């Protein structure tokens, strides 16, 4: 089993990965940034849509979900982005431990891949061959000072891609299952255009081993100004929900 040290406190386990450092890291994820509460259980943000849980330091030790990789519709010459992930932190803290997939339009051509990120470090692309329609399962878990980030693409077989890492400043004070419009500046601002992904359905969404709805999460709507870009619709039930692209 190959181990590649990528920097202080970070060890890759399994197949090698590609660090998307500058200048390749023009597309990055990070903390949520501005949050506007519109009701007791609903917030808007410029870059996230889905569900998020917030608590005290150390409140969350795991999060997981599955989804079918959506197909993006790309206009000629269009460049736009969309990310699908599970993670700890980032909602009410300044780090994130995330793993997920991407569905982008690159000059009018769809592009799909998998990645993980331990913000504020740069994202890392993982060597799974992701395609639209693939069944994805992802999880982040904390135990004994280390985070284990895992992603499985059923089309690539049953062996998950796994990363074990330490993040000493992580608070573990939130957990999320999210669709994101990534940023251009490796942070919560500079949100990029959201690719038209149609819709994506998450199943088995849970935190600390319990379905999300049992923990009273916030519904998160992606909104910039008066324009809604993406939002969950319908009820969150049994850890299942759907996020729809809107504009």
Quickly list its features:
single chain, 247 residues, mainly beta, Jelly Rolls, 20-stranded mixed β-sheet, 20 strands, 0% helix, disordered N terminus
Q: What would your notes on this structure say?
A:
The chain has 247 residues and is an all-beta fold. The chain has one domain: Peptidase G1 (Jelly Rolls), CATH 2.60.120. Helix content is 0%, strand content 51%. It contains no helices and 20 strands. It is globular and about 50 Å long. The model is unreliable at 1-16 and 19-25 (pLDDT under 50).
**The CATH class:** Mainly Beta
Mean pLDDT: 88
- Work out the count of structural domains: 1
Coarse shape: globular
What is the number of strand segments? 20
Q: Count every helix, treating DSSP H or I runs of 4 or more residues as helices.
A: 0
Summarize the structure.
The protein is mainly β and 247 residues long.
Write the layout of secondary structure elements.
Layout: E1 3-7, E2 10-13, E3 18-19, E4 36-39, E5 42-45, E6 48-54, E7 62-68, E8 83-88, E9 97-106, E10 109-117, E11 124-126, E12 135-143, E13 146-153, E14 161-165, E15 174-180, E16 199-207, E17 210-211, E18 218-224, E19 227-237, E20 240-245
Parallel strand pairs: 5-18
Antiparallel strand pairs: 1-2, 2-14, 3-11, 4-5, 6-15, 6-18, 7-12, 7-16, 8-9, 8-15, 9-10, 10-11, 12-13, 13-14, 16-17, 16-20, 18-19, 19-20
């Amino acid at each position: 089993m190959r181990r590649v040290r990528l920097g202080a406190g970070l060890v890759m386990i399994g197949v090698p990965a590609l660090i998307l450092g500058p200048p390749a890291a023009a597309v990055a994820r990070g903390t949520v940034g501005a949050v506007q509460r519109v009701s007791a259980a609903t917030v808007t943000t410029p870059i996230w849509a889905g569900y998020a849980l917030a608590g005290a330091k150390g409140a969350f030790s795991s999060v997981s979900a599955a989804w079918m990789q959506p197909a993006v519709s790309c206009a000629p010459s269009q460049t736009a982005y969309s990310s699908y992930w599970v993670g700890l932190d980032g909602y009410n803290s300044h780090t994130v431990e995330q793993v997920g997939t991407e569905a982008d339009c690159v000059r009018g051509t769809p592009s799909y891949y998998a990645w993980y990120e331990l913000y504020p470090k740069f994202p890392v692309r993982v060597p799974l061959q992701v395609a639209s329609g693939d069944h994805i399962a992802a999880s982040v878990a904390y135990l004994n000072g280390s985070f284990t980030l895992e992603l499985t693409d059923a089309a690539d077989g049953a062996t998950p891609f796994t990363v074990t890492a330490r993040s000493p400043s992580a608070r573990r004070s939130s957990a999320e299952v999210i669709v994101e419009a990534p940023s251009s500046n490796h942070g919560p601002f500079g949100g990029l255009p959201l690719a038209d992904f149609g819709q994506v359905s998450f199943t088995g969404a849970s935190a600390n081993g319990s379905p999300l709805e049992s923990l009273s999460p916030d519904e998160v709507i992606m909104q910039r100004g008066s324009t809604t870009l993406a939002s969950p619709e319908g009820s969150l039930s049994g850890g299942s929900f759907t996020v729809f692209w809107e504009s």
